[in-house]
Amino acid sequence: MAPTRPEPPRPSAGFPDPYECLPALDALRALPPGELDALVTRWAENRGLGSVRRADRVLRPATYWAFFGEPPLGLPALVRVHQRRNRLQAHHVEAFLGYLALAGCDYGVLITAGACAAEALSLSRERRLPRVRVISGPEWVRDLARWRAGVRRVMRPALVLGPLPDEGPEPVPCRPR
């Protein structure tokens, strides 16, 4: 029997604070490769992806294989994480589309620790195959927090990257800039 995924908590009413993600984003940008691997694996498994592993030896941007369902019958997908402060541009999406085509993969998730340019988002929406879902840094941090996959709220309004209460000592909260 396959393990069941926890249901995410309901979103709170009101608009999100744009500065609440800054401490977690700074921590994501500085995360070493081994810890990033563990974070991406936990996030992907909570989202229903399995068999997560590194796709190549290039450290940045990190690229991972994952499967929707169980291999060999599952659908392969690639997840790429850019640990960058600058906005993700259309040429980053084009490069990832080329990587997907070379790998023979029809689905991909492109994550950045920064913002996304409008051209990058529109390019990812225009393409039918391979399909790419682009996730901005604040969106990913909120998703990590929602699924309890390595980010948690320690004080209002900051979200921090760190162990969950049952996983070790308390992280040191950072002040938004």
Task: Describe the 3D structure.
This protein is α/β, with parallel strands linked by helices and 177 residues long. The protein has one domain: Dna-directed Rna Polymerases I, Ii, And Iii 27 Kd Polypeptide, Chain: A, domain 1. It is built from five helices and seven strands, in the order H-H-E-E-E-H-E-H-E-H-E-E. The chain has helices at 22-29, 33-46, 90-103, 118-126, 137-146; strands at 49-54, 62-68, 75-82, 107-112, 131-135, 151-155, 158-161. It has a five-stranded mixed beta sheet, sandwiched between helices. The chain has a two-stranded antiparallel ribbon with strand order 6-7. It is globular, with a radius of gyration of 16 Å.
Secondary-structure topology with pairs:
Elements: H1 22-29, H2 33-46, E1 49-54, E2 62-68, E3 75-82, H3 90-103, E4 107-112, H4 118-126, E5 131-135, H5 137-146, E6 151-155, E7 158-161
Parallel strand pairs: 3-4, 4-5
Antiparallel strand pairs: 1-2, 2-3, 6-7
Low-confidence stretches: 8-15
Which structural class matches the secondary elements? alpha/beta
- The percent of residues in helical segments reads 25-40%
Please indicate the count of domains: 1
Q: Tags for this entry?
A:
5 helices, two-stranded antiparallel ribbon, 177 residues, single chain, Dna-directed Rna Polymerases I, Ii, And Iii 27 Kd Polypeptide, Chain: A, domain 1, alpha/beta, five-stranded mixed beta sheet, globular
